[in-house]
Task: inverse folding
């Protein structure tokens, strides 16, 4: 294939990031990131959830502009790429984590998407077809016809199309953000062969993957990110898995400076909920899970490894095969829907506070009442006084800091909003509480309050399943942690077995270090 | 813009390919206008059967305003994000008023009027598009505001209906231009422009933006420019539609400002174009308009009361949309 850029000699600096910082509101996603990618190398970027990998990729691809720092490509400095178009023009092509395609257009149109101007056509139709066929033939054993609609392809082929689209732009730097996760085995091997060929021709590749074996197989150097900072860059010869894990976890606690007080451990009671042969994907290993009264179970793993789908299926939200049963003494009641879940005393606090939980224009009190509204009936009419009385009880217990209950929910901080949502579901007297990353984006004080509350509730027999993206939360709060990888439970740890290293190593499938 | 997908369900699992669909489903998915085509053919056959002396030119002339209005509604709808242009009807009437009341009396009533009216409509469409992308407002709100503004302008410009001088060339658009039926010329203008755009990258970009704007954006498409041009194009076609309308009825009447907007959108939807964007095209819009026109003609010939006409349109639209939904089957998740 002809190249658009004159290749740099191997070893020359192709991309250099200097002191990149990016904050979204009060949340600092990337604090200080600097690293270099040389021509002719595969450079892996590793880090836990929230370490800033995805934000960095979006800065490199022109989706986000950094607040500070410089990006230089082939010696030309940019304060920022203002759009993906600019990044592509500078020779940086990205394959994003989510498989992006326009489903009702043909494979050919998808592969050349964005290569033209608004009106100007960059290549003849014949050349487009020829080059597209070449790249697809290299990536796929049996490539689909170029005229097939992308929506008719399976996920692996759709992802291959997204990769082919980036490769067709002949980038001098190719960024692959978890681009292998949806690929079948054969296509992944073909992709690696293609990467090796591109690299041999002088291109640079940035690889982000949750699989340690892939890093071992193809990466020349590895840069480790931790809480938004680049910690170190290691060369292929001198890194060990243990060392990588140590760099990713670091010493500092993510939760903050508060002393790690040991929460009292409880004796778990009866089984209250169990799954039988629950499969999150067609050919995935089944999950048989039993939850006991009074225990707090954590769901861990890198983002998107199936823990979210698992938690939702406990709430009766389909999508997985197998059964979920609520166990009450001798009786087992199936939970086929979220309505059944509610009747069975299962409460779920969703992940996206704004989109899934709060009614943004309504008052704090009105945000509290929905599932329990009918209890405030007095002679057929709702009594706001009764609702207020019920709510005041939770204000004290959850230490919700608010002006008046009639104020808008928007007047509260994120942490206090989350407490109101948790109060909403606690008021429904659940036996089982499912929490989907409830502490994301809330301050340390509010986290501590929540941990204390959960401990207290578990003491009284509530069973809690909590998905968390923060390692420290698992270490501190959970009685037991299930680690998800590739839509399977890849490891399980009791509280006593947990350490930062074991947990993070298990995220990357490096259990040998863990034990 | 964020390319982050919403908190995903089990999206990573390798999904088996769609089970082999019947050729009919495949064909319907690729050519979404097939239902409207079948409907048009059937209705035309019925029409010809009960009305042996079907006046082709006269019928085409009555059909042309709705057809061009439907074509005008299509580009913004294809561009996605609910890109419904409510101002198409009033802009048509504005174009008719400007032609009959201003251009023709001022000696600009010749062929030069066509580009002038297209510029006028295009400018209004461009304003719609720019407001939508700059202020990030919902298209239906912006174009609804424009709908009322243009109706107001129409009332000001033509408080009473303006008659078009019978000697004007434009009336031949509803008759014959030499040996060629005039209405064919009116229809050919937007079709030719659309075809020419097919030779550029624009139409590919338009469908990509409508299909998934996050994908188009990250792939380097200038999404904003494509959206603005889609609305501009719709406005230009509405300018043509106004000329076609005044050629037929020979008066420009501000009280008809709102008559075409909704029926044109219905024609686009009936023609198989998803109002979610990214699919369909002007073939569907033309066939949808033809179906609506022919239904009305059949009902009139069959001495059916015209009062039922809107209900029949509604029924047809539901059938078309249901067929569309059934055909597309398990729709691929849209990231937005």
Result:
């Amino acid at each position: 294939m002809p190249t658009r850029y004159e290749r740099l000699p191997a070893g020359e600096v192709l991309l250099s990031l200097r002191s990149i910082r990016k904050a979204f509101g009060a949340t600092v996603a990337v604090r200080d990131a600097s690293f270099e990618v040389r021509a002719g190398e595969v450079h892996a970027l590793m880090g836990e959830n929230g370490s800033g990998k995805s934000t960095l990729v979006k800065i490199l691809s022109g989706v986000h502009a950094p607040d500070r720092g410089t990006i230089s490509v082939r010696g030309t400095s940019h304060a920022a790429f203002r759009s993906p178009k600019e990044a592509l023009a500078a020779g940086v092509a990205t394959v994003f984590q989510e498989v992006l395609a326009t489903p009702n257009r043909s494979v050919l149109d998808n592969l050349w998407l964005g290569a033209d101007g608004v009106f100007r056509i960059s290549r003849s139709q014949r050349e487009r077809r020829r080059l597209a066929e070449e790249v697809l033939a290299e990536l796929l054993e049996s490539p689909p016809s170029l005229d097939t609609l992308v929506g008719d392809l399976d996920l692996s082929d759709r992802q291959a199309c997204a990769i082919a689209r980036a490769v067709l732009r002949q980038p001098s730097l190719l960024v692959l953000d978890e681009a292998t996760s949806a690929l079948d085995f054969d296509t992944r091997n073909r992709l690696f062969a293609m990467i090796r060929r591109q690299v041999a021709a002088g291109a640079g590749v940035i690889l982000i993957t949750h699989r340690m074996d892939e890093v071992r197989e193809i990466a020349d150097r590895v840069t480790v990110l931790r809480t938004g900072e680049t910690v170190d860059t290691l060369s292929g010869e001198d890194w060990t898995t243990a060392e990588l894990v140590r760099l990713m976890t670091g010493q500092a606690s993510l939760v903050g400076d508060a002393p790690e007080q040991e929460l009292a451990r409880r004796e778990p009671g009866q089984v209250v909920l169990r799954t039988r042969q629950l499969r999150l994907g067609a050919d995935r290993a089944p999950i048989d899970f039993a939850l006991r009264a009074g225990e707090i179970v954590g769901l861990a793993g890198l983002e998107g490894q199936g823990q979210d789908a698992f938690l939702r299926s406990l709430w009766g939200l389909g999508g997985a095969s197998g059964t979920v049963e609520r166990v009450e003494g001798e009786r087992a009641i199936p939970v086929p829907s979220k309505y059944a879940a509610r009747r069975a005393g299962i409460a779920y606090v969703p992940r996206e506070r704004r989109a899934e939980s709060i009614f943004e224009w309504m008052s704090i009190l009105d945000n509290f009442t929905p599932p329990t509204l009918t209890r405030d009936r007095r002679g057929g009419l709702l009594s706001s006084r009764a609702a207020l009385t019920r709510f005041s009880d939770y204000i004290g217990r959850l230490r919700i800091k608010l002006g008046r209950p009639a104020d808008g929910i928007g007047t509260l901080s994120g942490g206090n909003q989350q407490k109101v949502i948790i109060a909403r579901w606690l008021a429904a007297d659940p036996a089982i509480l499912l929490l989907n990353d409830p502490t994301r984006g809330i301050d340390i004080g509010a986290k501590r309050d929540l941990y204390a509350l959960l401990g207290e509730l578990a003491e009284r027999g509530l069973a809690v399943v909590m998905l968390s993206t923060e390692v420290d939360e698992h270490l501190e709060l959970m009685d037991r942690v299930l680690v998800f990888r590739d839509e399977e439970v890849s490891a399980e740890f009791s509280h006593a077995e947990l350490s930062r290293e074991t947990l993070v190593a298990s995220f990357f499938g490096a259990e040998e270090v863990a034990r | 813009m964020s390319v982050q997908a919403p908190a995903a369900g089990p999206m990573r699992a390798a999904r088996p390919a769609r089970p082999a669909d019947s050729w009919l489903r495949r064909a319907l998915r690729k050519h979404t206008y097939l239902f409207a085509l079948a409907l048009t053919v059937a209705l035309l056959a019925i029409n010809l059967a009960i009305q042996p002396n079907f006046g082709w030119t006269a019928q085409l002339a009555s059909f042309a305003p709705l057809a061009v209005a439907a074509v005008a509604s299509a580009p913004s709808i294809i561009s996605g994000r609910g890109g419904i242009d409510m101002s198409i009807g009033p802009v048509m009437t504005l174009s008719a008023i400007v032609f009959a009341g201003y251009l023709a009396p001022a000696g600009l009533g010749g062929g030069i009027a066509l580009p002038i009216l297209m510029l006028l409509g295009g400018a209004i469409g461009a304003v719609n598009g720019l407001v939508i992308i700059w202020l990030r407002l919902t298209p239906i709100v912006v174009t609804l505001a424009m709908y009322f503004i243009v109706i107001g302008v129409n009332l000001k410009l033509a408080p009473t209906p303006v008659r078009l001088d019978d000697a004007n060339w434009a009336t031949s658009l509803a008759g014959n231009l030499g040996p060629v039926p005039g209405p064919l010329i009116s229809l050919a203008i937007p079709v030719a422009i659309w075809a020419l755009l097919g030779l550029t990258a624009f139409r590919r970009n338009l469908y990509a933006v409508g299909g998934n704007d996050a994908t188009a954006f990250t792939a380097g498409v200038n999404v904003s420019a494509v959206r603005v041009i889609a609305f501009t194009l719709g406005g230009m076609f509405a300018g043509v539609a106004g000329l076609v309308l005044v050629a037929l009825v020979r008066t420009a009447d501000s009280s008809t400002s709102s008559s075409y907007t909704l029926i044109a959108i219905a024609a686009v939807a009936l023609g198989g174009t998803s109002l979610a964007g990214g699919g369909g095209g002007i073939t569907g819009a033309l066939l949808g308009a033809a179906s609506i026109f022919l239904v009305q003609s059949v009902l009139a010939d069959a001495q059916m009361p015209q009062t039922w006409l809107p209900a029949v349109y509604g029924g047809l639209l539901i059938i078309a949309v249901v067929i569309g939904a059934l055909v597309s089957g398990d729709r691929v998740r849209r990231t937005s």
Remarks:
- Chain A has three domains: 13-104+172-249, 266-345+430-441+454-515, 352-429.
- The radius of gyration of chain A is 25 Å.
- The mean pLDDT of chain A is 87.
